[in-house]
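Sequence decides. Consider this:

===
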Amino acid sequence: MAEHRSGVVAILGRPNAGKSSFLNAVLGQKLAIVTPKPQTTRSRILGIHNLADAQILFLDTPGLHAGEKALNQALNEQVQEAARDCDVALLLVDLSDSWGEDHTALCAELAARGTPLFTAGTKRDLNRSREAAWPAAGVAPTFRISAKTGEGLPDLLRAIAAALPESPPLYPDSDLSDRPLRFLVAELVREAAYEELQQEIPYSLAVEVVEFDETRPELVRIRADLLVERASQKQIAIGQGGAMIKRIGTRARLEIERLLEGRVHLALWVKVEPRWSKRPNRLRALGYV
């Protein structure tokens, strides 16, 4: 019997390095939300990719960033935990960005633990990335990839699979993630809100699915609360005559229908919940910890 390999690969990097786009490209389906705004990813998301002789459990992580809020600290702790516990680490670096001391420190930390490490320069398809100096001197085996075009992904996936420990599959072949549908739906609503809202409000906004009714297979009914921290933010999220919340709902519903492969009735409400981002227990309830 041919050997089979399975293990966890932590996707690491700065905010907007292309981590979530990479995960979605590998899976061939949107699992992690993607927006142009930094710090979109708030929680570790496991994506399961099956090959003929390997099962790669990709763990998308938030980008490391500064901040004193409980939310910022919780996100940084998730990154550190993923780096500690993974079988293989994948460090993604925007080719148009510079290699920094944070990258060097992370590589040294992983080397000290003996964790296999691959680095990949992302966004290879962009003109500004084509002439970038890469790889950085003295770093781990490197690749140039594009999540948009798929360039470089097959070679990177083969290299990662070969570095995983021998193991039978850890999840059924049909599984895409270990996250429940409620969490994925909440993330798609949050993505829509990020896209529609141009003010600072997105960073004070969370989404909680409070109803998920699948009793009628032909129409799934979902109700979700958009949580904001101030009454002024609630007015922005609702918009004049409810125009903003309607646009958010329309955008989110289309993505949710793609995920569920069926019709969806989506009802959104905006709720003021002061200091939700500073309360560790609330962060856990929302699935961010």
